Amino acid sequence: QVQLVESGGGLVQDGDSLRLSCAGSGQLPYVIGWFRQAPGKEREFVAAIAGSGGNTYYSDSVQDRFTISRDNAKNTVYLLMNTVKPEDTAVYYCAARGSRITVVNRNARTYAFWGQGTQVTVSS
Hints:
Layout: E1 4-7, E2 10-13, E3 18-24, E4 31-37, E5 44-50, E6 55-58, E7 66-71, E8 76-81, E9 90-96, E10 113-114, E11 118-123
Parallel strand pairs: 2-11
Antiparallel strand pairs: 1-3, 3-8, 4-5, 4-9, 5-6, 7-8, 9-10, 9-11
């Protein structure tokens, strides 16, 4: 069983930067993703990282603004959010695919383990 805990959310202004962290209870599975869910909307893919961090994937809406990275020694994955916009306001979740799965998938339903989420609010 993998336990994930997100942190780093908060209230920021349009154009600011913010770094979210996702700490695992032990060695993190191969594929970790970040998702977000705004009020009244479905949960959407934000970014994912596989393996030692060489392979990263982003949604079009955050490409070139957000950076996902991982520190396996600390069992932690990060999401650096630059130039945030009001439309980035959401609860952000990190999630892990099964420990034996090495393929990244953007579908939230394929992720087995989830954190409790951290709220990010961007004011205009």
